[in-house]
Design a protein that fits this description.
It is built from eleven helices and no strands. With 245 residues, it is mainly α. The chain has two domains: 106 residues, no CATH class; 138 residues, no CATH class.
Length: 245
């Protein structure tokens, strides 16, 4: 259990070190635009407040949240507007070696368990994950667009499965009737509402960390998807959909 967390922290610290060194080489270019900072602060605080003998639940959350935080800072840096193609390729290779490859070479039972859980929520989600991973090793802007589309679908479908519209609307009416930003003008749940509903039963610090990370991930994936779409000059075609599945 602790060995897994140690590996996660190694990837997390490695990703931050790579981005810091790369920004320094570029004259302290602002590679991070603020998406990953709020959940990063919460994650660091969560780690600092872990007791000497933490429960299995807390270790598991620290492990999974650490890998997600590594992904957040990596994606945010790779989509920085100041990066040219050469910089993006170099940074991507460094992050891949430190973050992606160790995860891909980890015991398959961990990935299989994740895919089983996601399949139980939405049978299509594992296909988008596999499709996104397939495109990672392919160079070029079209591959980036496919990956962004797959990531956006994973987030959207998982949140909708965890927080169906009728349940979220009823929960907002019962517990947060005056809170802004939870329902659209049409009365549909916002992403924030879905996230808060999905983690409503988590303990306080756990819930706030998960909320911050999912909101950051959703915003970052949404921006990445919007940036990559003009590369194809159209919305995802049928061939793109098939690449994801």
């Amino acid at each position: 259990m602790f060995e897994t967390l140690d590996a996660t922290l190694c990837r997390y610290n490695g990703a931050n070190a790579i981005i810091g060194d790369f920004a320094k080489q570029m004259g302290w270019a602002p590679l991070l635009r603020g998406y990953s900072a709020p959940p990063g602060v919460r994650y660091d605080n969560y780690l600092n407040r872990l007791p000497g003998r933490p429960s299995a639940r807390r270790v598991a959350l620290a492990h999974h949240s650490g890998d997600l935080q590594s992904s957040l800072v990596g994606v945010e840096a790779l989509t920085a507007p100041d990066l040219d193609d050469g910089d993006e390729s170099e940074l991507g290779q460094e992050l891949s070696a430190k973050v992606v490859e160790p995860w891909r070479s980890a015991p398959s039972k961990v990935r299989d368990a994740l895919l089983r859980r996601l399949r139980s929520l939405d049978s299509e989600v594992p296909g988008f994950i596999v499709g996104g991973w397939t495109e990672i090793d392919r160079p070029g802007p079209v591959a980036s667009s496919v990956i962004a589309h797959c990531a956006a679908e994973i987030v959207s479908r998982t949140l909708r499965a965890l927080a169906p519209d009728p349940e979220v609307v009823a929960w907002v009416a019962a517990h947060h009737p005056r809170q802004q930003g939870l329902l659209t003008d049409r009365g549909d749940p916002t992403r924030q509402a879905r996230v808060r509903y999905a983690v409503r039963d988590r303990p306080g610090r756990d819930r706030r960390l998960v909320e911050a990370q999912i909101v950051a991930l959703s915003k970052l994936m949404g921006e990445t998807y919007e940036v990559q779409q003009p590369v194809k000059h159209e919305t995802p075609s049928q061939s793109t959909q098939q690449s994801c599945t």
